[in-house]
């Protein structure tokens, strides 16, 4: 399985992906699911992937190949993030159709993608691209998308994430979302790839690979457990009618 | 959808079910999914249901009918909770097979059940009954089961629920698990049915129906949001390398 989360906020964007893939519980591997592209002072693009690994690698492969051979259109020739999302969606649809034209069988090769970034002076954009190649965009009302094993980590985002939140807070919020998911589902696993993009910088951040022994993540994880346990104990006692 | 949670702990058992059913988003209804059976000073049985509503109602209908007509075996004639789980499982399998013998089509009529209780001086038991009629039992290592939309509410249980926890704490923990689920999935809805059974009392608790305006649940829900938000703010600031 996979868990990827991306946020488009007032001050920038936050992206985190896990790296665990599995073809059965006895075939676990580490594969990067967060890819960056960019041209300094011009454009910054992130793609996160979830689903069939051959499909996701083929999509990224085609996009990189276009850049390498300077085939048009490519991620660096397009003028807007909308066009980037369209290119990625078309590429995804084509990759799946190349494997099989049987639409029922195609679902075995499905993947979902998150595409975020900023080009020139235009606004940052974040798109959730479906296996069919169509997509939706994040907005201030719905500033985050998740793909893969999204449910365990959603409650904290639903409660705490706000569009006008500082990036530091949003990062902590998303790390907690990941910690909850890691604990509840072994098919989502460390290391994590995290990336914070500050609005209008138009540079590709190096990002951080978070390993199990990462001291900050360990502190967050431990302290959050304490917060929940203590929070639970400070809740008022249930009223008597709950015990009738 | 549905969310049901049941716990078998050192001091007793906690059961909570939602009541929302939907056949499409424009066809929402309220149906009870927590059923109690019992004979004072002899036995206490709870059944919680998730899945196809006609199937779950047929299972409960058959079990009630057996009691009414004193057909053997029935929930009050069996000697152990294991036998109760077997009867419920057989009944479930038969109800589904009565609709269709096509094993692929049968999945449209699937439901899952939680069966818990205590008979005489034997230990309390909690079983998770699969659509195929077979089942697993809760243990001190794994003291809770969930059926239906279980993922949003699982992180708090994974972190905080312990077998030797007082029932008051376990109840709070499960109410928070429900609150998280209600917020993240509109197909799980109020009112909730909650029941706390104290070990060896061998009486059927009245239980409590928790409506939207329930003052205790509202306090829990609001205070929990505050706990999370405040907890998030007191986390240490991310180290600089997260922003590279």
Describe this structure in words.
The structure is a homodimer of 244-residue chains. The first copy, chain A, is α+β, with helices and mostly antiparallel strands and 244 residues long. Chain A has a single domain (3-235), classed as Aminohydrolase, N-terminal nucleophile (Ntn) domain (Glutamine Phosphoribosylpyrophosphate, subunit 1, domain 1, 4-Layer Sandwich), CATH 3.60.20. Helices cover 34% and strands 27% of the residues of chain A. The first copy, chain A, contains six helices and twelve strands. Chain A has helices at residues 53-68, 81-99, 103-106, 154-160, 167-184, 215-233; strands at residues 3-8, 12-17, 20-22, 28-30, 34-39, 43-51, 111-119, 125-129, 135-137, 144-148, 192-198, 208-210. In chain A, the strands form three sheets. In chain A, strands 10-1-2-11-12 form a five-stranded antiparallel beta sheet, covered by helices on one side. A five-stranded antiparallel beta sheet of chain A has the order 5-6-7-8-9, covered by helices on one side. In chain A, strands 3-4 form a two-stranded antiparallel sheet. In chain A, α1 (53-68) crosses α2, α4 packs antiparallel against α5 (167-184) and α5 crosses α6 (215-233). The longest helix of chain A has 19 residues, at 81-99. Chain A starts with a strand and ends in an 11-residue tail after the last helix. The interface between A and B is large, with 50 and 51 residues.
Short description:
The structure is a homodimer of 244-residue chains. Chain A is of the alpha+beta class and 244 residues long.
State the helix count of chain A.
6
Q: Taking strands numbered 1, 2, ... along the chain, how are they ordered across the largest sheet of chain A?
A: 10-1-2-11-12
Radius of gyration of chain A: 19 Å
Give the DSSP E fraction of chain A (strand runs of 2 or more residues): 25-35%
User: Describe the biggest sheet of chain A?
Assistant: 5 strands, antiparallel
CATH H-tier superfamily of chain A: Aminohydrolase, N-terminal nucleophile (Ntn) domain
Largest interface: A-B, 50 and 51 residues
